[in-house]
Amino acid sequence: MSIRIRYFASLRDRLERDADQLEVDEPLAVGEVWQRLNPDLPLPPQTLAALNHEYAGLDAPVRDGDELAFFPPVTGG
Amino acid sequence: MSIRIRYFASLRDRLERDADQLEVDEPLAVGEVWQRLNPDLPLPPQTLAALNHEYAGLDAPVRDGDELAFFPPVTGG
Amino acid sequence: MRIELHATAFDPWAVLAQHVATAAHLRGRGGALATFVGTMRDRNDGDHVQGMRLEHYPGMTERELERIAGEAAARWPLLDVVLLHRFGELQPDDPIVLVAVWSEHRAAAFDACRFIMEALKSRAPFWKKERLAHGERWVTTNTPGTAG
Amino acid sequence: MRIELHATAFDPWAVLAQHVATAAHLRGRGGALATFVGTMRDRNDGDHVQGMRLEHYPGMTERELERIAGEAAARWPLLDVVLLHRFGELQPDDPIVLVAVWSEHRAAAFDACRFIMEALKSRAPFWKKERLAHGERWVTTNTPGTAG
């Protein structure tokens, strides 16, 4: 199973990268993907997640080919 | 005491005149001016009154030289 | 603060573009602008409306609009208000009213813009007379300002 | 319904004038138009802001704006919505966002315009980075949409 992960704004700056690619065999939830990729950094409070361009909870299941994104609270408008 | 009275919109159409001039000796309130000028027509419900370009109640005292106006509910905007 | 009655058609977008271009006190500060434009519809109460005459009370109408804008400015931290209203003969799609309210933040701009419109609808001395295919009629009530 | 992201400065008044001139479905019907324009302020949190970079999430941002406008159209009887938002490098006074909502009556136009702005502020994936005299900083919270 192949998942593309993207990071935006201050979270990208903090992680010092804007994307990850994860190859796994077992099913994972959104929050588990974060833990797998950032084992030393608990998900910062208020971080938002989106799965295939739609907001998703941390327990949403991630599927093969999905694009998962993590980002800080939005400040548009 | 000389008072100028103006009528607007549908009220003017109904009265078939747009203004009156009233000369009186005793003090009158807004509602009394209407009665004096239109003895056969009770003030139509929802009619508004303005004294010198400011909304006024029917018991507001009218003074010499005042401009008093009666008009139906407003429909601007 | 700019409050005007217009006897002939005005272009709300040209007015706003020109106002923003020349209002030095908004420069860098006017982060939020809420506007309302009311235009003449060609239907009302199920009838086709060909035109409209908008009557006002010269002298009082201007003062009442100024009082309304002043009340809004006393209640919210506003940077500027533009308030234009037509009178005279209107055609469908002609702008009737433009309310534009600048503030640093959106809450005050939204609240004050709506307050001005509701106050204008209930207090500013204007009266609409519609021209229909079979004659004329006075508009007797305004549409409520809150959703039913 | 017209929803667009712009990489360079847009003129909200030219956009609205052009939209009204060409939107046949508004002719005679769009009696009420509520708009909001947010522009870049040159001060924030007590500091002078020289410029701003507005980041977005290409693909998701457009879809989220479409979802928000769709929710508004499902909830209120709207005739049209125009929603433009900047991204990229901004200067003070540059428009950031334009929301324009047409309806037959003002209550729906006001309510839907404000709903779209609040939803956009809380949900649309945009992030502001301010350029100050002494460096850059991410904006971390939005101003609340209700008066304090």
Automatic annotation (TrEMBL), chains A, B:
GO terms for molecular function: nucleotide binding. Keywords: Nucleotide-binding. It comes from the Bacteria. SUPFAM superfamilies: MoaD/ThiS. It holds the Pfam family ThiS. One of its GO terms (cellular component) is molybdopterin adenylyltransferase complex. InterPro entries: Beta-grasp_dom_sf (IPR012675), MOCS2A (IPR044672), Mopterin_synth/thiamin_S_b (IPR016155), ThiS/MoaD-like (IPR003749). GO terms for biological process: Mo-molybdopterin cofactor biosynthetic process. Belongs to the MoaD family. This is Molybdopterin synthase sulfur carrier subunit. It comes from Plasticicumulans lactativorans. The lineage of its organism: Bacteria, Pseudomonadati, Pseudomonadota, Gammaproteobacteria, Candidatus Competibacteraceae.
Automatic annotation (TrEMBL), chains C, D:
Keywords: Molybdenum cofactor biosynthesis. It catalyses: 2 [molybdopterin-synthase sulfur-carrier protein]-C-terminal-Gly-aminoethanethioate + cyclic pyranopterin phosphate + H2O = molybdopterin + 2 [molybdopterin-synthase sulfur-carrier protein]-C-terminal Gly-Gly + 2 H(+). Pfam families: MoaE. InterPro entries: MoaE_sf (IPR036563), Mopterin_biosynth_MoaE (IPR003448). Pathway: Cofactor biosynthesis; molybdopterin biosynthesis. GO terms for biological process: Mo-molybdopterin cofactor biosynthetic process. The keyword Mitochondrion does not apply. GO terms for molecular function: molybdopterin synthase activity. Its EC number is 2.8.1.12. It is an enzyme of class 2 (transferase). Heterotetramer of 2 MoaD subunits and 2 MoaE subunits. Also stable as homodimer. The enzyme changes between these two forms during catalysis. Belongs to the MoaE family. This is Molybdopterin synthase catalytic subunit.
